[in-house]
Specification:
This protein is α/β, with parallel strands linked by helices. The protein has two domains: about 5-275, Carbamate kinase (3-Layer(aba) Sandwich), CATH 3.40.1160.10; about 280-375, PUA domain (Archaeosine Trna-guanine Transglycosylase, Chain: A, domain 4), CATH 2.30.130.10. It is built from 13 helices and 15 strands. The protein has helices at about 20-25, 30-45, 60-65, 75-100, 110-115, 120-135, 155-165, 220-235, 250-255, 270-280, 290-300, 340-345, 355-360, and strands at about 15-20, 25, 30, 50-55, 105-110, 135-140, 170-175, 195-200, 235-240, 260-265, 285-290, 310-315, 320-325, 330-335, 370-375. The strands form three sheets. Strands 5-6-4-1-7-9-10-8 form an eight-stranded mixed beta sheet, with helices on both faces. A five-stranded mixed beta sheet has the order 12-11-13-14-15, with helices on both faces. Helix 7 (about 155-165) runs parallel beside helix 8. It is globular and about 70 Å long. The structure holds adenosine-5'-diphosphate (ADP) and ligand VHF. Adenosine-5'-diphosphate binds next to helix 1 and helix 8.
Length: about 375
């Protein structure tokens, strides 16, 4: 591809994520100046006709400064307190900066649970779509005040990618403190070289992305790479870009080669299946024999109990499970028709035996093909 950035010129719907590393300095709260000029850049993209959803970090750092805390706390209840205090300031900073450009802003706070429950997922999507239609800039963050480990996105890279899936964005821009994605962590290796572009699924990228991060960041590059791959599932192109250089967003919109671009090279999955694999939390694992792997991956068939060799975890009927090959590599995800205890009793057996083994039969398949998504 000659200049893969060129394809961004004609794109319409962008999710832009602004990370903690960019917005805050340890102990100094929010960088209001940066919020102001980034808002100006976003205003310019909107003037060019793009629909923008902003995903922003910064609530914990802002709250820490207001509460006079010098170190990011580790205890969940103190993080929740800092985030609740800081979120007020964060949203106020964006609202004020955007008002200057005549832009109305709206706050959307999400937890993983909001996106994993189908009805709430659809509600979040329609809320974002309505705001975009009305010309309002949605400003999204994790609802840290109520997020426990069970329902946490964990880092805003994941939240931004899920938001991109949710609204089927064309582009996900991850603004951070580095100019792009390097072949090793530039914080640790001064010789590291930045990549201009890559296919999102390129396996060589895995060993390049370090998990080191700034004092206030959560994910490092590893979560950004995972976010790029997640966004690619709904067909989005991701760009990791420095949010420190004025005009970077404008350059990007003009098709200039700034940052590192990851183009989607996997087949896009339908909206419902995306929700299924991307938003639900897996509750267990099924280990399949080679025959079962071949028919579900190669022929798009349902998974029958006869192809199961082992069952792990504790899941109920209707919950998401990961399907792995005999080597433990994930090959698919899907909604189980039987609980973990029932699956153990019927594994390795033909479907006709389910009734005699359990005393009842719900479905002949352990996972029906409509509820099964191949993920390799
Ligand atoms: N391959 C890599 N290329 C660029 N940065 C990397 C890489 N591996 C690790 N990093 C680190 O990731 C950091 C950015 O992640 P993080 O601090 O979580 O930022 P943010 O708060 O913007 O999400 C960089 O400052 C850098 O040290
Ligand atoms: N929701 C948190 C942000 C989480 C976080 O730090 O994410 P990231 O910017 O990806 O490192 C906050 O607003 O402080």
């Amino acid at each position: 591809m000659e200049n893969p950035h060129q394809q961004l010129v004609s794109t319409q719907r962008w999710v832009i994520k602004i990370g903690s590393a960019l917005l805050t300095k340890p102990g100094q709260g929010l960088d209001l100046n940066r919020i102001r000029w980034l808002s100006g850049e976003i205003a310019e993209l909107r003037r060019q006709g793009k629909d923008i959803v902003l995903v922003t970090s910064g609530s914990v750092a802002a709250g820490m400064q207001q509460l006079g805390w010098r170190r990011r706390p580790h205890e969940l209840h103190r993080l929740q307190a800092a985030a609740s205090v800081g979120q007020m300031n964060l949203i106020h900073a964006y609202a004020t900066a955007c008002q200057y450009y005549g832009i109305h802003t709206a706050q959307i706070l999400l937890t993983h649970a909001d996106l994993s429950e189908r009805e709430r997922h659809l509600n979040a999507r329609s809320a974002l779509q309505t705001l975009l239609k009305m010309g309002i800039l949605p400003v999204v963050n994790e609802n840290d005040a109520i997020a426990t480990d069970e329902i946490r996105f964990g880092d805003n890279d994941t939240l931004a990618a899920m938001t991109a899936n949710l609204i089927e964005a064309d582009v996900l821009v991850i603004l951070t403190d580095q100019s792009g994605f390097f072949d090793s962590d530039p914080r640790l290796n001064p010789q590291a070289r930045m990549l201009a572009a890559s296919a999102a699924s390129n396996p060589a990228l895995d060993s390049m992305a370090g998990d080191s991060k700034g004092e206030l960041g959560r994910g490092g590059m590893a979560t950004k790479l995972r976010a790029a791959r997640r966004a690619a599932r709904s067909g989005a192109t991701t760009v990791i870009l420095s949010g420190k250089e004025p005009d970077n967003l404008r350059h990007l919109a003009a098709g200039n080669p700034v940052g590192t671009l990851f183009w989607p090279d996997m087949k896009p999955i339908k909206a419902r299946q995306q929700w299924l694999v991307g938003h639900l939390i897996p509750k267990g694992k099924l280990i399949l024999d080679d025959g079962a792997v071949n028919v579900i991956c190669g022929q798009g068939r349902s998974l029958l109990p006869v192809g199961i060799r082992a069952v792990q975890g504790d899941f109920s009927r209707g919950e998401l499970v990961i399907c792995c090959d005999a080597q433990g590599r994930e090959v698919a995800r899907g909604l189980a028709n039987y609980s973990a205890a029932e699956s153990i009793r019927i594994m390795g057996q033909p479907s006709q035996a389910i009734e005699s083994l359990l005393g009842y039969v719900d479905e002949p398949e352990l996972i029906h093909r409509d509820n099964l998504v191949v993920t390799t």
